[in-house]
């Protein structure tokens, strides 16, 4: 080696010699020195920095720590023995995991924008804000959606309605999977969609316009809760909605609705009941519960919700099996309805 690469007469290295020995650029060594991470061992008479073997070993440690992404403050804590290397690695691991979570959010945002067909700056910014919401903010967003859709109904104090609301607010983990984050972004987009809110609100208003005077909502909720509890075991056991065994649950469902609407339980009434549900149906409502299940890590929507959806399917199959009876009874019932002033049933809330 030339003289500039050998140790100086005092057993120390100039900054240029240290750079050649370590492979670290002079500019970087100077930056570390100025930052206090690599203080020089001394100076020449001309005030040039000099480094010894301890500084050379320290530089190797600094470089290794920087290569795994540690910040300068953490590096300083390690080299000054305020942190052990294990503790420093833990700090960096936490930082890397935070970066990965941030990258997952970005990936979810971009995928949601592309799926939605809108990668504009405004839409991306909105998705980014949704992805960064805290748990409290997420709950507030969903509760605002529920408040606006069902303002004033049902009355407070109905346990089934309150339980339904609790289930409707998903619990996104602090470290969600890709699927859970994607589901949250989709759900938040649905819940803040003005058209969806309008349609659900209109469906709710249609129901209240269709109920007879003196409608006992608590009785309706209690009846539906008892029915779903009874049917749940069969649903979880895998009974199909078109299974003959589903007939007794359809009968109980129709009987509860007929009592609530003060109508006879006929095939025609069941057809109208189904029509009321389907008229107010929006595929986004079913998708909402699927997304809640994904976010909460459930295999399927909550058992109560899944059972309610199953009951509607069972009613649909029953109505399709009896179209002739419904037509015959419809004419006979028309006169009675005109006399009684009964209304066509709309989709009852919470069913």
Would you give an account of this structure?
The protein is mostly helical and 351 residues long. The protein folds into 3 domains: 81 residues, Multidrug-efflux Transporter Regulator, Chain: A, Domain 2; 36 residues, no CATH class; 206 residues, no CATH class. Helix content is 68%, strand content 2%. It is built from 16 helices and 3 strands. Strands 1-3-2 form a 3-stranded antiparallel β-sheet. Strand 2 and strand 3 form a beta hairpin. It is rod-shaped. It starts with 12 loop residues before the first strand and ends in an 11-residue tail after the last helix.
Structural descriptors:
351 residues; mainly alpha; Multidrug-efflux Transporter Regulator, Chain: A, Domain 2; 3 domains; three-stranded antiparallel sheet; 16 helices; 3 strands; rod-shaped
Biggest sheet strand order reads 1-3-2
**Low-pLDDT segments:** 1-5, 155-160, 334-342
What order do the helices and strands follow?
EHHEEHHHHHHHHHHHHHH
This entry's quaternary arrangement is single chain
**What level of helicity do the residues show?**
55-70%
The DSSP helix count reads 16
Radius of gyration: 34 Å
Could you tell me the strand content as a percent range? under 5%
Number of distinct beta strands: 3
């Amino acid at each position: 080696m030339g003289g500039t690469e050998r140790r100086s007469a005092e057993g120390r290295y100039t900054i240029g010699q240290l750079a050649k020995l370590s492979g670290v650029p002079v500019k970087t060594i100077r930056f570390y020195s100025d930052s206090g991470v690599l203080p020089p061992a001394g100076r020449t008479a001309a005030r040039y920095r000099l480094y010894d073997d301890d500084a050379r070993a320290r530089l190797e440690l600094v470089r290794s720590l920087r290569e795994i992404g540690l910040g300068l403050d953490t590096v300083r804590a390690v080299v000054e023995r305020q942190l052990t290397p294990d503790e420093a690695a833990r700090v960096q691991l936490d930082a890397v995991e935070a970066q990965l979570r941030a990258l997952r959010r970005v990936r979810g945002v971009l995928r949601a924008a592309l799926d939605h067909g809108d990668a504009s700056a405004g839409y991306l910014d909105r998705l980014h804000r949704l992805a960064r919401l805290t748990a409290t903010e997420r709950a507030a967003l969903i509760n605002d959606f529920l408040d606006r859709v069902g303002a004033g109904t049902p009355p407070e104090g109905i346990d089934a309605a309150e339980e339904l609301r609790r289930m409707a607010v998903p619990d996104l983990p602090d470290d969600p999977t890709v699927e859970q984050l994607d589901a949250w972004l989709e759900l938040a987009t649905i819940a803040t969609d003005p058209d969806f809110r309008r349609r659900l609100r209109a469906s709710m208003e249609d129901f209240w316009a269709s109920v007879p005077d003196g409608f006992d909502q608590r009785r309706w909720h209690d009846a539906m809760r008892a029915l779903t509890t009874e049917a749940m075991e069969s649903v979880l056991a895998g009974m199909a909605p078109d299974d003959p065994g589903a007939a007794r649950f359809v009968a109980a469902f129709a009987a509860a609705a007929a009592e609530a609407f003060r109508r006879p339980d006929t095939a025609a009434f069941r057809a109208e009941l189904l029509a009321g549900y389907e008229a107010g149906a929006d595929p986004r409502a079913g998708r909402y519960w699927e997304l809640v299940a994904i976010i909460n890590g459930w295999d399927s929507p909550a058992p109560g919700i899944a059972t309610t959806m199953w009951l509607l399917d069972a009613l649909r199959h029953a109505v399709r099996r009896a179209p002739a009876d419904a037509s015959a009874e419809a004419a006979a019932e028309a006169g009675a309805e005109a006399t009684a002033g009964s209304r066509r049933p709309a989709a009852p809330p919470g069913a």
